[in-house]
Design brief:
Keywords: DNA-binding, Transcription, Transcription regulation. The protein has 180 residues and is mainly α. It has one domain: Tetracycline Repressor, domain 2. The protein has nine helices and no strands.
Length: 180
């Protein structure tokens, strides 16, 4: 009997994100991932029991990266506006995390309604306690929406936004909306 082959879960998630990024969310199947990884479908299913589990793992991994970035920018117990500022900074900072977010969100939204509900809750939480009766709160909300819009335009490849433009957009959002 041969030695049991180890399958690198993180490598499979990287490959799954790449499939979504380059071929679209509908192209992410257990079979496509197995072919890309050079393993059997059973090997993928051993690591991820189902396509839903794979999709959930993409989202969970991105969320973990995001929370680390956010904590780095805001520290413990930030105000709601500081959380928005941290979100904007995290959105523009890490390409790898951003690719994971784009892949995860695209895949989740296109696959099943339960993932859509979780995504809605995640977004609602980002602005839930921002006091939009104040100028600072309204600017924070606008900065959040601008950052998310720029993110999706870039990472869904709806607009060609190079690194220099990306940095300039961040600077504009930060200076014009958050540092007023």
């Amino acid at each position: 009997m041969g030695r049991k082959k180890n399958i690198d879960r993180e490598m499979l998630l990287d490959l799954a994100e790449d499939i979504v990024r380059t071929k679209g969310a509908a192209s992410l199947t257990i079979e496509a991932l197995a072919r890309t990884a050079g393993i059997t479908k059973g090997g993928v299913q051993y690591t991820f029991a189902s396509k839903a589990a794979l999709i959930e793992s993409i989202g969970t991994r991105w969320l973990s990266r995001y929370e680390e970035l956010l904590e780095h920018h805001v520290g413990p117990a930030p105000t709601p506006v500081e959380r928005v500022k941290g979100h904007v900074a995290a959105t523009f900072e890490d390409e790898n995390s951003a690719d994971g977010k784009a892949a995860g969100v695209m895949t989740m939204l296109m696959q099943t309604p339960e993932f859509l509900q979780g995504t809605r809750e995640w977004y609602r939480d980002k602005l839930e306690n921002v006091d939009t009766t104040t100028s600072e709160g309204r600017m924070a909300r606008l900065a959040f929406l601008a950052a998310e819009g720029a993110f999706y335009l870039r990472f869904l490849r709806l607009m060609e936004i190079d690194d220099a433009q990306w940095a300039a957009i961040y600077q504009d959002i930060n200076v014009q909306l958050l540092e007023r």
